[in-house]
Design goal:
heterodimer; A: 577 residues; alpha/beta; Flavocytochrome C3, Chain A, domain 1; Methane Monooxygenase Hydroxylase, Chain G, domain 1; 5-stranded parallel sheet; 4-stranded mixed sheet; 16 helices; 34% helix; B: 77 residues; alpha+beta; Alpha-Beta Plaits; two-stranded antiparallel ribbon; 4 strands; binds flavin-adenine dinucleotide; binds iron/sulfur cluster
Chain lengths: 577, 77
């Protein structure tokens, strides 16, 4: 049996899906490892300006720089911030490669802030150690990555949405089915190994503003990778450990305590008082934030109005030109000036993200998922709190290992029946003449997430939410798209739908509370280490059901003292009597 | 299932006098991570076709003629 004519097939040795941060690094690393191999970087947007760092970045949130901290210190810090549930080996691999990656990026021309003596100008933001390295000129980072892709002759394919992974007879990943988002053409990419770098699932919840695209994450990161991995049978982990961030109210960009903290800014309640010890984003910190918001002392604000004029100018320069440059316009529209007014903050919608939290597709210290030949890096994977530098480090590791996996392998036989059925499923919304617009379907899913799945988590609520979502399964056959762009949105909406169910199923499975607000489960308010000191793995079983199981935590590589374990539990500023 | 179209005020504004799309420029369209800028068939100029914007600004920053202005979406203002 051969494929129908309307399906194009392309062969590459190594396929990288997602060209944001981790993806370009993975593609370059694969080429460095196997210069003669063909490497394709498939991107839903355009690699020149895609992903979380599309406009640049304000700094490295987790730089492990000799003289300031050791990899052991860092592993301890993240172990504590993550309430002990993590693959320490993975965090250690990151920490050991962190400085090398900074030097590599530095050599490529990425500018990091240095002090008078030419040393990296490190800032303390975390609770215990010093890990933040500002990059006030961070806006050229995408350009620098793009130059590397050209130099290594990586094949870049923009405006393709990967939708389904392909596996061979032995269960190895062997490519993907993708959709050209401008022409609605189906393209099958056949590969000998695959690296997924599709970013966070940032479009599951609805921002308080009600604007579907006003998310914290770049909205192109809607959970495609999570859904694809799930549908292919991979395990996901820690999905109940949501990502929830403290943000500027309505603007939904980071308030940037990491930028302002070292310069004297802080998070304050409506009285202007500091109430958290440490602005580093953790579930425990978010719990205090949430309590203050709800407890009568809110709203919560970013306080800068006590700072000197030159400090404020420095802050404005960084925050209004780099990572989220429309921020200045947002403030101007409301007449907010840091000199005279505190800036109102709020909490974000929920999401899955390893970069900020610990939720995503399970990956180990080699970047391997549970599917052979399939690797995962960055926000969609599961090495916790990995941020931008973690995406680069694991992008490199995955690219190298995927190149090695591809060596000596042949292309797999294509499963024509499966691919043809998927083509029909993917294109179906465009074949209809009316029906449910993707935006309405998506809005409804995300509204249900907010109504029923946000913390505080309650069994009865999550149960209703899940049932309402399952009932929406019938709506999929009525999705209607008028053009290729709406078809992209229809396919995204189905991935968001999968992710929403995953959030419910994983949250109900872990019957305890952990990670502060992220998994604040009202029916089980205590942390229960006896039964739940483990990972929760979510996967699709043989009968196609969404189920969970426990996975034991691998032996630690860095032990913690009992006195250290609770450091992040004491987030609230202690009042002197 | 009958449908209706609703109008929406879009955040990105393009100055037709400055836009040189007729000379082949597609920069803003190429860089937009959400693919919401398209050529307006009537004018031949770039315009915002879908109200799905992250107000991230590559379109404005990379436009060679400063034709693009990104405003904050109305619901957020
Ligand atoms: C607003 C904001 C501010 C941040 N600030 C900082 C900071 O100051 N310091 C720091 O260290 N970290 C920061 N982070 C975190 C950091 O940027 C991320 O952790 C990191 O960039 C993630 O890299 P990634 O490669 O996983 O995802 P991304 O860089 O987001 O890339 C994912 C890519 O996958 C593509 N994609 C998605 N689905 C598909 C599909 N189906 N097919 C093809 N392509 C697809 C997307 O278009 C995107 O280009 C910030 C994040 C955000 C959102
Ligand atoms: S980048 Fe500027 S000049 Fe080019 S098409 Fe867009 S608006 Fe027109
Ligand atoms: S601001 Fe960003 S999302 Fe909006 S049109 Fe411009 S590039 Fe696209």
């Amino acid at each position: 049996m051969t494929l129908p004519d309307d399906i194009t097939v392309k062969d590459v040795d190594i396929l990288v899906i997602g060209g944001g941060t981790a993806g370009p690094m993975a593609a370059v690393a694969a080429k460095e490892k196997s210069p003669n191999a063909s490497v394709m970087l498939l991107e839903k947007a355009n690699v020149k300006r895609s992903g979380a760092i599309s406009m640049g970045m304000d700094g490295l949130n987790n730089a492990v720089v000799p003289g300031h901290s050791t990899p052991e210190d860092y592993v301890k810090e993240i172990t504590i911030a993550n309430d002990g549930v993590l693959l320490q080996k993975g965090v250690m691999t990151y920490a050991e490669n962190s400085f090398k990656m900074i030097q590599k990026l530095d050599a490529w021309g990425v500018y990091f802030q240095k002090d008078e003596t030419g040393e990296y100008d490190m800032k303390k933001v975390h609770h215990l150690g010093t890990y933040v390295l500002p990059m006030p000129e961070g806006h050229n980072i995408k350009k620098i990555l793009y130059r590397r892709l050209r130099r290594h002759r990586v094949t870049v394919e923009n405006r393709y949405q990967a939708i389904r992974l392909l596996k061979d007879d032995e269960g190895n990943a062997c490519g993907c089915i993708s959709l050209n988002t401008r022409t609605a053409e189906i393209v099958v990419i056949r590969a000998k190994s695959v690296v997924m770098c599709t970013g966070a699932a940032g479009r599951i919840g609805l921002p308080a503003s009600g604007y579907l695209y006003g998310t914290y994450e770049n909205p192109s990161n809607c959970g495609d990778g999570h859904s694809m991995a799930y549908q292919a049978g991979a395990e996901l982990t820690g999905l109940e450990c949501y990502q929830i961030n403290p943000l500027l109210k309505d603007y939904n960009g980071p308030a940037c305590a990491y930028v302002t903290g070292p310069l004297g800014g802080y998070t304050a309640n409506s009285k202007g008082d500091r109430f958290i010890e440490c602005d580093y984003w953790s579930g425990q910190m978010m719990m205090e934030f949430y309590n203050e918001l709800q407890g009568g002392n809110g709203p919560v604000f970013l306080k800068l109005d006590h700072l000197a004029e030159e400090t404020i100018q420095e802050i404005e320069h960084v925050l209004h030109t780099n990572e989220r440059p429309s921020r200045g316009r947002f403030h101007d529209g409301r007449g907010v000036d840091y000199r005279t007014k505190m800036v109102e903050m709020h909490i974000s919608e929920i999401g899955f993200c390893a970069g900020h939290s610990a939720s995503g597709v399970w990956t180990n210290e080699k970047g391997e998922t549970t599917i052979p030949g399939l690797y995962g890096a960055g926000d969609m994977a599961s090495i916790p709190h990995s941020y931008m530098l973690g995406a680069f480090v694991f992008g490199e590791i995955c690219g190298t290992n995927a190149a090695e996996f591809a060596e000596g392998r042949d292309f797999a036989e294509l499963d024509v029946a499966y691919i043809t059925a998927e083509r029909d499923r993917i294109l179906a919304p465009m074949k209809r003449t009316d029906g449910i617009p993707p935006s309405q379907f998506e809005y409804k899913v995300r509204r249900l997430v907010n109504d029923y799945l946000q913390p505080p988590k309650v069994t009865k609520k999550m149960d209703i939410g899940l049932q309402r979502l399952i009932a929406m399964e019938d709506d999929i056959q009525h999705l209607y798209a008028r053009d290729a762009h709406e078809l992209l949105r229809a396919n995204e909406a189905q991935h968001i739908f999968d992710c929403a169910q995953m959030a419910a199923v994983a949250s109900m499975y872990r019957q305890e509370s952990r990670w502060g607000l992220y998994h604040h489960y009202v029916d089980h308010p205590e942390t229960n280490n006896e039964d739940w000191f483990c990972h929760v793995q979510l996967y699709k079983n043989e009968s196609g059901e969404m189920v969970c199981k426990k996975r034991a935590i691998d032996p630690y590589v860095v032990e913690l003292d009992d006195s250290e374990k609770n450091a992040y539990a004491q987030m609230r500023v202690q009042q002197a009597d | 299932m009958p449908i209706a179209s609703q109008i929406s005020m879009v955040p990105v504004v393009i100055d037709d006098d400055k836009c040189i799309a007729e000379k082949g420029c597609r920069t803003c369209i190429d860089v937009c991570p959400l693919d919401v800028l398209w050529i307006n068939e009537e004018t031949g100029k770039a315009h915002m076709k879908y109200d799905e914007c992250w107000y991230c600004m590559p379109c404005e920053t990379d436009c060679p003629t400063d034709a693009v202005t990104v405003n904050i979406p109305y619901l957020l203002r």
